[in-house]
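Q: Hi! First time asking for a complex rather than a single chain. Here are the components, and I think there are two in total. Is that enough to go on?
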Amino acid sequence: MSQLSQTEGQLLELDRLAVTFYTPRATVRAVRDLSIEIRRGEVLGLVGESGCGKSTAAFAIMGYLPGTTRVDGSILFEGRDIAHMGDSDLRELRGNRIAMVYQDPATSLNPSMRIGTQVQEVLREHLDLDSRQVRERMIELFESVRLADPEAIGQRYPHQLSGGMQQRVVIAMALACDPLLLIMDEPTTGLDVTTEATILDLIVELKDRVNAGILFVSHNLGVIARVADRVAVMYAGEIVEQATVGELFKNPRHPYTAGLLSCVPRPPGDDGIERKLSSIPGSVLDAQIEGGESCLFADRCPLAQDACTAQVPPMTDLDGHLSKCLFPDDVHSGIWGESQERNKELIPEEPIPVLNAHSLRKFYGRERKKYLLFGPPVQQRVRALIDVDMKVGTGRTLGVVGESGSGKSTAAKTIVGLVPKDGGKLELRGQNLADGVQHRSKEQRAAMRMVFQNPTASLNPKLPIRHSIIRALRKFAGLSRDESRERAEQLLEAVGLDPSYLDRPPSELSGGQQQRVALAGAFAASPDLIVADEAVSSLDVSVQAQVLNLLEEHQRESGNSYVFITHDLGVVRYVSDDILVLYAGHVAEYGPSEAVLGSPSHPYTEALLSAAPIPDPEATQNQIRLEGSVPTLHSAFKGCFFAGRCPRKIGDICDTSTPPEQAGSHGEGHIINCHIPVEELAIIQQQPFQNGVSVT
Amino acid sequence: MAIEELDSQITTGGANALLKGASRKARRGLSIALRTNSGRIGFALVAFHLFLAIFGPSLTPYSPTDFTSEDLKIRLTGPSMEHLLGTDGFGRDVLSRVVAGARSIIWISFIGTVLGITLGTIVGMTSGYIGGKTDQAIMRGVDVFLAFPGLLLALLVINLGVQRIGIDLWPSKEAWLVIITIGIAFMPANSRVIRSAALAIKPLEFVQSARLRGESSFYIIFREVLPNIIPVVAVEASIRVSFALLLTAGLGFLGLGVQPPTPDWGLMVSENREFLSIAPWAALAPAMAMASLVVGVNLLTDGVREAAQLPISQEAS
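A: Yes, that's all I need. Here is the structure of the assembled complex.
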């Protein structure tokens, strides 16, 4: 450990750090002006939209930058400038004093090495230990990250672990040499909400235990609110605001922070009024543009005045709350548009639903017997959907939630006909829908469109963006070339893009713009139903809010329905009229939105809700945590599908008999598949719950 | 006017922009290829040979094919001021024959490669996109082709062709038969590479989105998938060209390609190999020409491969 004087002072001090990449194409100013400090035992959250330079800053501290990069300013680690340090000195620091945890645990671990060997490698490289001590230390590390069976788990390969366990191993490796500084770059972004919650718990716990400074980089305000002590908000390579977590979320002093906070869908406030999402127009200032003498946020800022573009605003210190704004006192939650109440007038229910799915079943793979036709089965089909019912009424939105592997995407693909179903019935406005999309009529295809998760992949990168829109118009509406071009221009304008974009290649558009183009293509044939598979998941909060508002507006105007698939409970709460909770291909709970999200609810819904990060450091949530991941099913369950991970498991009955379908609080339309009687669920869910036992 | 009308007839209007875009990308690709040393050297060598192929026959100091009784007196003389690379067994100027020989080998290999790549791309994309049992059937058929020895295939195609084709083709039947041989020989391996590239594109959302629009498989394969595997096709083609050159020269050496007295590098090596001990230049000169062309093509290929990788990685990020 270092000298006492240093443990008192700053561990890491970045002073006016600037990172510039020189590429043959352009000069990219990834980080422009970054000054932060981290003490030991403190978590500093670094938050901002993508393209703001968060990750570059993290890599700069590690010294992982390509040779053509220029680093200005200083990075002082324990008083030594590591920005301009030689390679061998840096190697001494990395892994030993400074450690990093990356976003994707699957790629940070070597897939061909046992995890124990990988952890031991780190220990041998940096510490002078004999092999027995190395082994002991490894077990100690596995224990400290709460991995079950620390003695034996080192024998496993990364693919034998779930995503959450892999990330625990990566954290264990980072902790191997008692680092003073831990850099975490979006460590939970690729994980399910339930797993994310357990990893965040671990990080909060580690903070107290290891006495290291942690730089926690994330785009998710909810995650930051849960782990950080102080938060620095980054915009276009600059720190624009810095404060303690409570202060920043309660009383933002920079318009950008206020904007980010008002973009996040959150539960209705105390008054019970649902508010419309605000959004930040435009996109992050291009890193290729030189800032000059202006506030970099001025072109998106609702408070911007002439003074803002005439000078670089100084960092103002308001009792320890730093803000890089000329008018920090004018910032309040209303600057991004008066919070309007959403008018959610329901279109009168029609007798025939737009979409009616009954006992939908889907299996993947093929069954094989040992001797072709006889013998024991050696390979069974994966059960992806089992008896799923759903109904979507006119102008209504059905939200489908669940962890990855719960069958959400399969449900979407089965509905639109990308994969054939293996049982059950699908009806569109009372008419039977054939299995594959190629067997459906043109009208049926036009009436049901799909929006995909990854906007970059949903547009052909080699064709101009007009292609998909015009093609849909010509196919479905039978328009001529000129007519469809004109209509395509209108559609682009309707989704808030300039018609001149039609002739551009997708690579010139940002992710949010690409997703709008995809929406324009989906809206093209005025469909009755749009299936959106994680359509906003890969977007930044500000853009996500724009897209959500766009979807809602379109629904109000044309009365179409949505099947909205997402893992984000905040989003699903915001958009859905009805919610379907899927687990391992089974319906856990199904009913009107308020009934499902309220109490009583299925234990799985309850666990999902308590895991979802809320962008409010003072929010109180039950700590119900699920370990492991959704099982892949090869044979039918004897008992309840959720029994293996259920925190409310009541006994043998859960393992031996199928749970009954109970009517929930909302009566007929609300289904809970659980052995625990609804009345009892209502009582036990009122009480605070702490998850003591972890199940793997 | 006629051209504009034709343009507007091309469906959905993307084809035009695509062509323009393709030539722009090819230019950009070449400029990136020229940034590497290997790309520059390769480009110089290939450009030199192309120059010979185009203008060579009109630059030769002596006739590459004809010889008189006077010439026979100076057969197999060494390099001199009159004959820089000496003379061959018939007293013909070796330099003139090497220079004139560039044309046949280059166009035959080039057209042969284009044929092989086109066939392979069509087979590979179709097989990869349709998948399932069709894919299995096509790929097993490809395996059969792959297992067939190349030389045997060449003998079969050329001998059969020479006997059975009654009409005369320009410039010679053998040249076209060599092209067909190259095409058939390259199709299987190429189709496998293209198939795997198509398999990587198939699950992407824009392909699914096209399926949901009710597009035909034909449309999806050629309009949605093909533009995305053009870089793979380009790299594959540039690698294959040097194989095609070697194959053409090899067939010429065996007497299966262009027939005498046409100057052909493979044929020249074969004709003059018996004089290797007394007049090595006559066989060595065409061999050196051949080697420099293949090396040049390979170096340029390296540059092209680098250029093809660049845009792909940019799109991925």
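A: Chain A touches chain B at residues 416-418, 437-438, 442, 445, 449-450, 452-454, 457-464, 467-468, 470-472, 474-476, 481, 503, 505, 507, 518, 521 (CB under 8 Å). Let me know if you'd like any chain examined more closely.
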